[in-house]
Amino acid sequence: MDWSRVPVFLKVVDYGSFTAAAKALGVPKSTASRAVTTLEKELETQLLQRTTRALELTEAGRAFYERAKAARAALEEAQAEVSQNVDEVSGTVRLSVPNDAAPMATVVAAFTRKYPGIHVDLVVTNRHVNLIEEGIDLALRAGRLDDSSLVARRVARSDLGLFASAEYLKKHGTPKRIEELADHAVVLFRGRQGKMRLRLETEKGEQREVTVRGPVTVDDLSFVRGLVFHGVGLGMLPIFFTHARTAGMKFERVLPEWHVAGGGVHLVMPAQKYVPARVRLLADFIYENFKPLECSKH
Predict the structure, then answer these.
(1) 233 and 165 share one domain
(2) How many separate domains does the chain show?
């Protein structure tokens, strides 16, 4: 078997198509397709199920992919240990981040300056992607983690704070006490029947519960932000992701001493014995440089 075809197969699976893989490899699509077809003939088994819409791994393909990917990671790890020179590390790292993670742009920009040989493929989506099936090396996720099979590192808090537009506060006034929230419209996040109960707390541990009401219920934080920006009402938004935009979108923090506790912002990756040097470098860089962006005032 010609092992030079294996990296092509891995790249096709990682990118989900022959076209994207060929572009990443800098070869014609026909070359990538021919390499995988020849590999299948050499192994005497079908690795990919080809349809007009997508590529899917066969059972044998999945097993071969996992073993080959681990072997690739082990080789890259060995190369990094031998060279002891991170400047020589190269390749692509696929990183998934939510739409609200605009501060990540600063971190990624700094990373690419420090490690010019590493290409970062950013996948921006609020959907919880399947890291293994979609070839994602790292993902930034806010809130509770449901998948125990992932390796997670907490990089920041994800508390929610009350925000409002300057226009809304000018028209309706700024609440100074929690009790005054009953007199204000609130954009409800996953609320029911026009109302939602909030459990607020302070850094000193004081807790209060309050029922708020509003004209709109929505299950997407980007829509909450948009509705708050347009003066529909107050809104609970992630402090961490909102503070960097507050000035530009003319948001103002309301009752800043109170917040709703979140589950944290985590950097997750698939559990694997060998982590490629390029992935480890990006993970460590995010962990070390993401925290200074956190809003320390709640």
Answers:
(1) yes
(2) 3
pLDDT in tens, 183-236: 999 998 764 455 678 889 998 889 999 889 989 988 777 788 889 999 999 998
Residue 286: give its domain's CATH number: 3.40.190.10
Domain boundary at 84, 112, 142, which?
84
Residue type, 214: G
Q: Report yes or no: 96 and 136 within 8 Å, Cβ to Cβ.
A: yes
Neighbours of 275 (CB within 10 A): 20
pLDDT per residue over 101-116, tens digit each?
767 888 999 999 999 9
Residue 15 sits in which domain range?
1-84
Distance of alpha carbon 253 from the chain centroid: 25
pLDDT digits (tens, 9 = 90+) for 66-104: 889 888 877 876 766 665 566 678 889 999 998 767 678
- Closest Cα partner for 237 from 179, 166, 159, 183? 159
C-alpha 222/C-alpha 240 separation (Å) is 14
Average pLDDT value over all residues in the chain: 83
Among the candidates 50, 84, 118, a domain finishes at 84
Three-class SS state of 244: coil
Q: How far apart are CA 236 and CA 104, in angstroms?
A: 21
Find the length of the chain: 298
**Same domain flag for 124 and 207:** no
CATH number at residue 14: 1.10.10.10
Give the pairing of strands 186-189 and 160-165: unpaired
The two tokens of residue 264 are: 């944290």
Q: Is the pLDDT of residue 175 over 90?
A: yes
Beta strands 138-142 and 217-218, pairing class: unpaired
Tell me the C-alpha distance between 57 and 145, whole Å. Answer: 27
pTM of the full predicted structure?
0.59
